[in-house]
Each structure stands twice: as C-alpha cells, then as structure tokens.
C-alpha cells in the first residue's frame, strides 16, 4: 500500500515537474497563448466582481425607496376607530412592543413653507422616524441622520437635500444653520444633515423631518379628503418570518385601533417582487463572461494543437525513453492546465486591482454604496476555476492527439 | 541471461493501396547480457524495423518475440512502455536530443519516467553520467551549441542513465566523422561493459560492425548470420566485409 502511494505520488509530482519544465522551455509560446486566457479570466472576474458592486449599488438604490428586506408597510383606514395621528401612533407603538420589533418608522409626506432669502417657498417634507434612515439606507453627505433625541428639540431638526443646502449658501453644519418654517405657526428649524442629490434632476429643495416635529406644524386647514398627512407605518423584520409577522402585526394593530379600523399590510422592499429583479443583469454578466471565456479557450486550443503538431518528434523521443501513453496524455494536458492556472491567478489579480480601483467604483455607482462588498471570493474562484477548466478542455484535444502519435513515425518526423 | 529472443519474427505493413508489404520475415535472433551484436544491411532492408521490434517500440505480425522471457504480445501497452524505459536504451543516428534543454536536462529526461529514488535524485544521477561521458564541463550547454560528437555523447549518457540491460544503437556514428565515430563507439562499449548490458548496433560502417562479436546481415527482410556457420572468425572482420561487399554488389546490380 505504501509502495503504491509512493509510486502514485512520484508519478503525480514528476508529471507536474515535466509540465513546468515544458512551460519553462516554451515560455515564449506559452506566454503568448496564455495572455489571451489571462485577459479572458481578468475580464470574467472583473465582470463578476464589478457585477457584485453594481448589484449592490442597484440593491441599495432599491432599498432607499422600498426599504431593506423585509420592510413591511401598513396603511390605516381608521373607520370608526381611532382617528387622530397620536392615537394611531400609540396603537402602532403598542403593537410593535408586543411583537418585539426593533426597527419601525412612520413615513409620510407633507409640505412646509420655508423662508429663503429670495422668498418663501413650499418645500416637500418627508416625514419619518429616526429608524427610517437605517431601514432605507439614507445617505448623509454632511452632518448626521436623526437620533432619538432629535424629536425633543424645540427647534425641529431638518435633514435637507443638496438643492436646499445650496439654496441657503451651503453653510457649514458646525455653525448650526437655521431656516424659518411656516406651517401652523412659525418655528425655526435647524439643519443637522444634508443628503446628496439622487440624480441630476433633483433640483427642488426637499427635506426630511421627524414625525414628532412635523405634526405640531402641519397646517390645520388640511382637509382629510385633500391630501392631509396620512403616514404609512413601516417595520423592518426578518426576511424569513415577514409574511407571518405581517399577518400577526396587522391583526394586532387593528385590534389596538378599535372597532371598524382596517389595516392593509404589504412588503415594499425589492426582495418581495416575483423572481429575482437582478436576474437580467446577472444573465447578461454570465453571457458576456461565457463568450469571453470561449474566445480565450478557442485561442488556447488553436495554439495547443499547433504546438503538439510541432512536438511530435519530441513526444516520440519521450515515448522511446519510457513515457507511457497515459503519461504523455497527462503531461500535455497538465501543461495547459498548469499554464492556465497561472494565467488564472494573474488574471484574477489584475481583476482585483481593476475592480478595487476608485475609477471603477465611480463608474459602477460604488460611490453611493454604503456596504461596499469586498472582492467576491466566488468571483476569484470562478475565475481560476474557469481558467483551469479552459486549460483542461483546450488541452484535451492536443493530449488525445499526442497519445495517437506512433512512436516510430514520431522519431522519424 | 537471455534478454530478447526472436523466433520466426516477421513484420508486415499495409500499403496505402491496401496491399501488404513484408518488411521482415522469419527472423531468428537471441540477444543475451553482454552480447555485442552488429546488424548490417542496405537502406530499406528492415534494420530499423528490427531494432524497433527489439526495443519494444513495435510488435511483430508473425512469429514469437520474448523480452526477458515474456511474450511481448502478452505485455500490455503501459507495461511495455515501462519495460522499455527501464531495460532499453536507444542511441539514434541523429542524436534526437530535445531542443532547448541543456545537456543535463536531456539526460534527466528518462529519469522523469522512473519511479522512486531515481526520480528524486535525477539531477545527481544525470550529472554523474555526463561526467562519465566526459561532458562534466558542458552540463548547462544546449545541444545546438555542442559539436556532433558531444551531442552523441549526451545522447549516449541519456540512453544509459537508467542502466538499461539492452542498448540499441541505430547508426550511432552515421552523423560523425571516422575518428569521432570510433571514439563514440568506444565510449558506448565501455559504458555497456561497466553494466554488462548487451549492445545491438545497426551500421553501414564495416569497421563499426567489426567491433561486435556477433555479426548479422539483413537482406530482403531476412536476417542471416555473417559469422559463417562453423567458421566464425574471432574478429569477424572478414565476414562483415564480405557482407558489405555483397550489399555493394547488389546495389550496383540494381543500379
């Protein structure tokens, strides 16, 4: 048994040694043939790695609107039950406490008039609770997102968008810039954060304000039928138990609100959509990668076939000195496999450098990504694995050809 | 000990038009350890085919051929390759060194196919062998930078590095001048004598053939002893010269 193991180990090592020697001797040719594979692997790995960043960017973009998985939104139809926002908020809080839900936020829209230097302008306000920032991955470019204590401020805290901030002269937040808010009375708001523009078309001022700060300010003229503040109630729950929790919370919320109250609940995050919303991107990435790899394999196969033809005499000589057909087969196969493995490592290294470069990050929207994914290990493994697979496939035909060489003819070749 | 024993061995190949062509027929030959055998014959007489059969590179289509007592037709392909690697050393007319490799790497090549210690100690063994053939100073030189005689010495070192029991030399001096040829033959014989290996030489050169103690003539695919029955001369020169003259006469007749 030990003897067999030793012989096998020696056989494997000697085959690899022979392959490495062949690679060294034919390094010029090998280098040329492997450049194609290295570039293909680099492209493949870059596409997969960059795809992960692009996917994360897309995911985070979706999460900014719909919330992280699983975000459940609820709308309240109060009927004959609790009618005012405070009563509904109390019922909501009780329901959340009973279910042990840590992240929840009311989310609604309202309008407050803001006194700018060039006049008073109605500004769209997104009315939320502090947890909304985490639940929707709200990015803040200056200052910080709301904290729980912000609700107790006498001067309401505002997190304004870039257009708002520029309109007041982009002041340093360290100076606690303020604006006059006109609603049900007039109060001074303090700007505590600035969010970057979501797109170049976001030119109108807008701001986030905490629900507890907004409710006392909302104009009393609001007609329930004419767009009065009517928030949705959002909670962030574990993905696996979202459906179950939705039902349970809905029933409990209705019960808290009293007779006649109705609650609608649905998942608003992207993951609730039917199928994988990123599937088209993924398929496109895989398609491109496969085409790239096939081209690399084709180039390698051509060169390997030509090379074996040019080495028939050498193969014959080796056979005359005791190389078995199997040994020649694995030796030729191993040459391409070892070569493509090295090319794969080089390609993956280049891809990592490329994907992690700031330029690529910007191009993929990586600058907007909060949780920048590390270079995906699976991309590196796929790259090297694909390189080895290509080497094995491209080496198969030449290896079979090498085995079919007749020793006598080969020596005379 | 008998290394190779051929009884009525023949080799027939099929021509492209489907007709059979008999290259060898009814060959009887026994080669034992320490033998010095020379085979002469015209081009196309089947010398190389016979050498390929003796070296397990080819199999006969008729007759019986035994290598170390084993019928070669019963030995599997892989086992035959391994047997060839360990027991047979080839020296070719055109040296057949692997281009791009140094002398040392060329001599190491057969050791890549041997298991165990020989593989792990291949560099040392190859170095010793090259020193033995007088090329200790040219270890890292590539074949294209060596003279013909030096190239053949590398080829000899490579053929003998695994200490084969049978050395098959196909026109080993064919590409060398007379003096270098004689030196190379002396070297092969000396190294073979050290290990007790048998040496079978195919040659056109009567003086090279005369160095053997058994002489054969291959004519029209048939092997004939050039050591006349019951009249085997101690040096063999006369018979080999006769055989060569016989070939020349036939060549002239054909012309």
Q: Can you tell me about this structure?
A:
- Chain B: Keywords: ATP-binding, Nucleotide-binding, Transport.
- Chain B: Belongs to the ABC transporter superfamily.
- Chain B: This is ABC transporter ATP-binding protein.
- With 413 residues, chain A is α+β, with helices and mostly antiparallel strands.
- Chain A has 3 domains: 14-63 and 276-412, no CATH class; 69-101 and 237-268, no CATH class; 106-233, no CATH class.
- Helix content of chain A is 53%, strand content 17%.
- In chain A, strand 2 and strand 3 form a beta hairpin.
- In chain A, helix 1 crosses helix 10 (325-355) and helix 2 packs antiparallel against helix 8 (279-310).
- The longest helix of chain A has 40 residues, at 27-66.
- The mean pLDDT of chain A is 82.
- With 255 residues, chain B is α/β, with parallel strands linked by helices.
- In chain B, 38% of the residues lie in helices and 25% in strands.
- Chain B has helices at residues 47-54, 77-87, 103-112, 117-120, 122-132, 148-160, 178-195, 206-209, 237-254; strands at residues 2-14, 20-32, 36-41, 62-67, 70-71, 88-91, 166-170, 198-202, 214-219, 222-225.
- In chain B, helix 5 (122-132) crosses helix 6 (148-160).
- The interface between A and B is medium-sized, with 27 and 31 residues.
Number of helices of chain B: 9
Domain tally of chain A: 3
CATH topology category name of chain B: Rossmann fold
The total count of helices of chain A amounts to 13
The second-level CATH architecture of chain B is 3-Layer(aba) Sandwich
**Low-confidence blocks of residues of chain B:** 229-240, 250-255
C-alpha end-to-end distance of chain A: 41 Å
* Amount of helix of chain A: 40-55%
